Structures are given as structure tokens and as C-alpha cells.
Amino acid sequence: MALSYTVESPSPGFNFENSTRNVVFEALLNEGKSKAPSPLKTGTTIAGVVCKDGVVLGADTRATSSEVVADKMCAKIHHIAPNIYCCGAGTAADTKQMTDLLASNLSIFTMNSGRNPRVVMAMQILQDMLFRYRGQIGANLILGGVDCTGNHLYTVGPYGDMDKVQYLAMGSGDLAAMGILEDGFKPSMELESAKKLVRDAIHSGIMSDLGSGNNIDICVITRQGVDYIRPYEESAYKDK
Amino acid sequence: MAASVAVAGAQHLSSVSDLVPDWARQEVSTGTTIMAVEFDGGVVIGADSRTTTGAYIANRVTDKLTPIHDRIFCCRSGSAADTQAIADAVTYQLGFHSIELDEPPLVRTAANLFKEMCYRYREELMAGIIVAGWDKRRGGQVYTVPMGGMLVRQPVSVGGSGSSYVYGFVDSNYRSGMSKEECLRFVAEALTLAMERDGSSGGVARLAVITEEGLERRVILGNELPKFFSA
């Protein structure tokens, strides 16, 4: 990195370098007679919303291995603690391991201290672990839960960056889902509206992203308890 | 086995990279504008609120003004993960130090802790930090710790990718001996100008005033920012 003393700022704005490369490639391919293949997207749509009474998390259920759907009923909302759940996007193995490690750590903490874990604690542990591995663990996580301090929603990225937010979408379908969330979110929503909003966001991700599909799972966390509805809505194209 | 997403670092021309959208691969960066000004009795600090992953805005209401201690804040620019981790580590170290001393820590100490970490790990980290606060010995102070790990005290300091666009404005408009309100307006105007020109800066302008009495935070929403000529 910086070997001489220069302040290196990341280059701002949009990067159109690949447009010229694509033109060259297309010209090369069969002397311009065939088009270059369009980019394949893989992954997930996960979303979370903080509402008046708790937190609503949602996810699609498709797991892909390149162009093949490897699992049509994959569970992407992981249990961390009775009051904390985590949606994972990215490498399935990485998200599963991270969430399992986190869950074990927090249950040991609960047994040691006799206290219920707080969402901020789960976030701190995740952030610490992911930062240590410098981005090699491909886990994009949405952490949501209800504890004595309130209803919380956090996101933790593979490099260990975190954001505390009121609503969020992650995964390859996140742009589509974010559009729905940006349009429909209001602070302190009612539970039913929040469930509908999350369902609409995941549905939008499923419709607009190749890597997301099949069913929609919803997890509702409130002070009274957790309602893990799996599936909340089944795909219209499910085989009979 | 589900497909993978994170390919750390540079782009490759192989087919694997086609499967992943460009912005999903990039590290989250606070391409940003941060600023701090000393005045008699305290400091005024400010930042924009945009966090980007490549060309996608991951968070449009980020808070880049991070408390390190009761009267000491830091403004973060560069990699979001790196700066959050550094700020957490320094918060811990400073808190420990303050308890040992049984008195509030000096801003100089906080700045030094940042410098130690940023210089020691300069090859691995991408972090440009402005440390600002108030202590009893020297009053309001601003220290800048840019990438590479330099430490220098300045009466006014700007940082981040948007800072390049406002050096002229800052140099020509800064006067020593400004009041708190004048400093607030100065910072708000500089942030606005930077956010207008820099694609990686934007959103709302977050300001904070740190004095002996305490802390005052303000948010200026996009439509309430000062108006300038726009072509």
C-alpha cells in the first residue's frame, strides 16, 4: 500500500472501464457475429425491518451452485439466541459456521452470567471475528433481535464493517428489495404491515434476481417470543 | 454447496467474477468528507453520511462521528471495517487508561493511540482519521491522522475523498477566533460544497460541538443544507 507519504483516497464515482473491454471482447467473439454472455448473478435476497413491537426478518429459500439450484428449501434465517436471529447471504458454509459459532458463544455466556444476550453483543462478536479474517469469510449477515434495550437491526459485512439501521436488504437481490423497503418503510410500523413489507421486498428480489427464488421465510421477533414462519409463502411454481 | 460471493481485492478477468455483481465484491468504503475546527472553548466536527460499496450506497445515513470518550470524538474516512475496528480498539485502550489515571484523558493521548495503530499497521489498513475533542489542559484540539500514520495538530482539518474539493474554500474562509456559531456555519458550508462535487460523499450533514459543558449533535437534512450556485 502506501510506501511513500501520499494520501491515497479511494477513487469516487462510477467506473466505466469495463465498457471498453466488453466492446473489444464482443468484437473478438466470432468476429462480432455472436454476443457476449450476459453476467449470471447468484445468491440470495434477505431483508429485515424494525417495527413498533419487534423485528421482522425475511429470506428467500434458494441456494445455488453456479446455474443449478442446489437447495430449494434452504434455511437462511439462523437461530442465534431465543431473542436473536440472523439472516445470512454469501457463501452458505461461511454464514452457517459463523452463526453456529456465535450461537454457541452466546449460550455459554448465558450460562456463565445468567443474563440474556443483547443484540449489540452478538454484533460485536461477529464484527470481531470477521475483521480478524480480513474478508476471507464470505458472510453478509443481517442480525435482528429484541432485548431489554429495545428492538435492534444490524448488518455485518465480510470485512467486519457494521451498520445499525431501521431497515435493510442484503444479497444479490438486495437492490430490488431495497427499492420496496425505501418506498414502503415508515418508522414504528405495525407488525402486520412490517410482515407484508418484508414479504413484498423478498418477493421483489425473487422476481428480479436469478439467484433468489422458491419460497419466502419470515421470522418475527417480539418481546413475547419468536414466530418463525417457514414457509410464509410458497412459490407459485412449486412442483405438485 | 451454495455459490460464493466474496473475492477479496482486485478484479480478475476470469469467468468466476462474472457471476458476482461488481459492487458485491468491493470492500465497503466511507468515501467521504470529514472536517473539524477548533474554537475557543471547544471543537466543531462534521461529516457526510454516505457509505459506498463500489457504486452502490450501502448506507445513506451513516454516522461517521464516533465517540471515543466523553469529550473526544473521531471522524472516520477510508475503509469502514478498518476504521470501526481501530475506533473500537482505541476506545477500549483510552477507557482503560482513563480509569487508571482517574481523570478524563487528553485529546493528545487519543490521537496518539490512533497514530500508533495506524502507523504500525500502515500496510494493512486504509484509514484516514481526524481526532477532535476538549480537555482541561489545552481546551479544544483537532489532530489529524491521515493514511500512513502521521500525527499533527491543526486548527482546521478536512479529510476523505471529498476534501480535495474544499481545500480552497477552507483556506480562504477560515479565520482564527471564530465563534461556535460561525464555526458551525463554516463546517456546514464546506461539507455542502464537498458533497455537491464528490460522488462518494452525500446524504445528510452530521455536526457535533464538543465543549467543557458537554456534547451537542445536529443533523442537517439534504434539503436544509446551505444553498450555493449549481450549474
From TrEMBL, chain A:
Major localization class: cytoplasm
This protein's GO CC annotations: cytoplasm; nucleus; proteasome core complex
Compartment list: Cytoplasm; Nucleus
InterPro entries to which the protein is assigned, alphabetical: Ntn_hydrolases_N (IPR029055), Pept_T1A_subB (IPR000243), Proteasome_bsu_CS (IPR016050), Proteasome_sua/b (IPR001353), Proteasome_suB-type (IPR023333)
A Pfam family matched in the record: Proteasome
Molecular function per GO: threonine-type endopeptidase activity
Catalytic activity of the protein: Cleavage of peptide bonds with very broad specificity
Keywords recorded for this protein, A-Z: Cytoplasm, Hydrolase, Nucleus, Protease, Proteasome, Threonine protease
Functional description taken from the UniProt entry: Component of the proteasome, a multicatalytic proteinase complex which is characterized by its ability to cleave peptides with Arg, Phe, Tyr, Leu, and Glu adjacent to the leaving group at neutral or slightly basic pH. The proteasome has an ATP-dependent proteolytic activity.
Protein family (similarity comment): Belongs to the peptidase T1B family.
Protein name per the record: Proteasome subunit beta
Originating species: Scleropages formosus
